[in-house]
Write a structure and sequence with these properties.
The chain is mostly helical. It has 13 helices and no strands. The chain is globular, with a radius of gyration of 21 Å.
Length: 436
C-alpha cells in the first residue's frame, strides 16, 4: 500500500503492518458474524417481551459469572494458539445449530431464550478476549496509534453484517441469518491463525515464543481478586457499570418504541439491522480519521468522556420528546461514538498492566461486571415502570448517570497517563494493578 499523508494508514509503521492487517480482518470476520445475528436477537426480545428480557439479563449475568472461572481455567491450562481459534469454532457451531432449530415461521420460546442469553454473554467475552491478545502484541504507545485503525476492522464487519441481514432476511429468514453468522466465525479462524503466526514470527527466538505462548497459570478466580485489590481496576469497573446503565435505559426504550411502531417481526429485524449498519457506517469513518488523532493529541481522557457528556444532552432531548425518531438519532449517535472513541479508550486503560491482569481482571470487568450492571439496571428500569414513572423520568435519570460516567472517565484518563509514563521510564517494569 502507498498511504497518502492524510491516510490513517500513515500511523502504522511498516514493521507493524502485517499484524495490523491480520488483526483488522480477524475483527472484521467475527464482528460481522455477531452483528449479522444481533438483529435476530433483538427481534426475539420483542417477541419475548420487555419484562422477560429483563429477567433474561439476570440469567445472562449469572452465566457471565460462571464463564469467568471457566475462562480462567482455559487461560491457565491451554496455550493461546490453541484456545483462541477453538473459541471461534465453538461459536460458529452453536449459531449453526440454533439456525437449524429456529427454522420455520414460529420461534420456539426456549430456543429463543437460549439464543438471547448465549449471544449476550459471548459478544462481550469474545471482544474482551480479542483485545486481551492485542494488548500482548502492542505496547501503550502503539495502542494509541493503532487501536483506532484495528477497531475500524470490527466496525467494517459490524457494518457489513447487519447490512447483509437487512437485504437478505426476507429471502433467507432468521435461520438463514444465523447460518450466515456462523460462517463468519469459521472464517475468523483463518484470520486468527495468521495473526498467531505473526506473533510467533515476531518472537526473538523459539524459546521466547514458547515462553510467551505458555499457559498463564494461576488461580482461575484471580481476576476477581485483582479487581478488588486495585483502585484503578475498580475505577474501570465503575466506568463499565455507568456505561452499561446508560446503554440499558436506551435499549429498553428502543424495544418499547419498536414494538409499538412496527408490528411485523421481519420488519423489526430489518429496522434493527438498519440501525446497526447506519451506526457502523458513522463509526468506521470516525475510527479511521478521528480516533487515533484524538487519542494522540488530546489523550485517553477525550476518548473516555466524549460520549458520556454528549449523552447528558441526548437524554434531555429524549425526555422532552419521547418519539422514535429522536430515540433513533440518540441511539445511533451514542453507539457510533462509543465504538469509535470509548471502546478503544477503555482497552487502552489496560495496556500498561501485566499479562495476567490483561486476561483475567479485564475479563471480569468486561463480562460479569458489565452484565451484572445490565441486569441491575434492567430491573431498576422495570421497577420504575411498575411504580408509574414514565419514559421521561427514566431519561432524566439517564442524564444524571451519564454525567457521573463522564467524571469517572476523567479520573481514569489521568491515572492511565500516569501509568503510561511509568511504563516508558527506563527504570520501570510492567506495572502491577495492586500498585495503583
Amino acid at each position: 500500500m502507498n498511504p497518502s499523508s492524510h491516510s490513517p494508514w500513515r500511523l502504522v509503521e511498516p514493521r507493524e503492518r502485517p499484524a495490523v492487517i491480520a488483526a483488522f480482518f480477524l475483527f472484521f470476520c467475527f464482528w460481522a458474524g455477531y452483528f449479522a445475528v444481533r438483529p435476530v436477537r433483538e427481534t426475539v426480545g420483542t417477541l419475548l417481551g420487555r419484562d422477560r428480557v429483563a429477567d433474561l439479563w439476570v440469567i445472562t449475568w449469572i452465566a457471565s459469572l460462571a464463564i469467568v472461572p471457566i475462562y480462567g481455567v482455559i487461560v491457565a491450562r491451554f496455550r493461546r494458539t490453541t484456545f483462541l481459534p477453538f473459541t471461534y469454532a465453538f461459536v460458529g457451531l452453536v449459531l449453526t445449530g440454533v439456525g437449524f432449530a429456529m427454522q420455520g415461521e414460529a420461534i420456539d420460546a426456549r430456543i429463543g431464550q437460549f439464543f438471547y442469553v448465549f449471544i449476550s454473554v459471548l459478544n462481550l467475552f469474545l471482544i474482551s478476549m480479542f483485545w486481551s491478545f492485542l494488548l500482548e502484541l502492542f505496547d501503550s504507545g502503539q495502542a494509541k496509534r493503532l487501536f483506532g485503525v484495528i477497531a475500524a476492522g470490527g466496525t467494517a464487519g459490524a457494518l457489513v453484517g447487519p447490512f447483509i441481514s437487512d437485504l437478505s432476511v426476507e429471502t433467507i429468514g432468521n435461520s438463514g441469518i444465523l447460518f450466515l453468522g456462523g460462517g463468519m466465525f469459521f472464517a475468523a479462524i483463518v484470520a486468527q491463525r495468521i495473526l498467531l503466526k505473526i506473533w510467533r514470527d515476531n518472537a526473538p527466538s523459539d524459546t521466547a515464543m514458547q515462553a510467551n505462548d505458555r499457559p498463564i497459570g494461576g488461580n482461575p478466580f484471580a481476576g476477581f481478586a485483582l479487581v478488588l485489590r486495585s483502585p484503578y481496576l475498580l475505577g474501570i469497573a465503575l466506568f463499565v457499570v455507568l456505561l452499561s446503565t446508560v446503554n440499558t435505559f436506551l435499549y429498553f426504550e428502543q424495544l418499547r418504541l419498536v414494538e409499538i411502531t412496527f408490528a411485523d417481526t421481519t420488519e423489526r429485524t430489518r429496522v434493527f439491522a438498519r440501525l446497526d449498519w447506519i451506526v457502523q457506517g458513522l463509526t468506521i469513518l470516525s475510527q479511521l480519521f478521528l480516533t487515533g488523532r484524538i487519542a494522540g493529541r488530546f489523550g485517553v481522557i477525550a476518548l473516555l468522556t466524549i460520549v458520556p457528556f454528549a449523552m447528558v444532552f441526548g437524554f434531555l432531548a429524549l425526555a422532552a420528546s419521547g418519539t422514535f425518531a429522536v430515540l433513533a438519532v440518540v441511539f445511533v449517535l451514542r453507539r457510533a461514538c462509543e465504538y469509535a472513541f470509548v471502546r478503544p479508550g477503555r482497552e487502552m486503560l489496560y495496556s500498561p498492566l501485566d499479562k495476567e491482569t490483561k486476561y483475567k481482571a479485564k475479563n471480569v470487568n468486561d463480562v460479569p461486571v458489565y452484565r451484572g450492571a445490565d441486569a441491575l439496571s434492567a430491573q431498576v428500569n422495570s421497577l420504575l415502570g411498575a411504580a408509574g414513572f414514565g419514559a421521561s423520568a427514566v431519561a432524566l435519570l439517564g442524564a444524571v448517570v451519564a454525567a457521573a460516567w463522564g467524571v469517572v472517565g476523567i479520573w481514569l484518563g489521568k491515572r492511565f497517563e500516569k501509568n503510561a509514563q511509568a511504563e516508558l521510564s527506563p527504570q520501570s517494569t510492567v506495572r502491577s494493578p495492586q500498585a495503583e
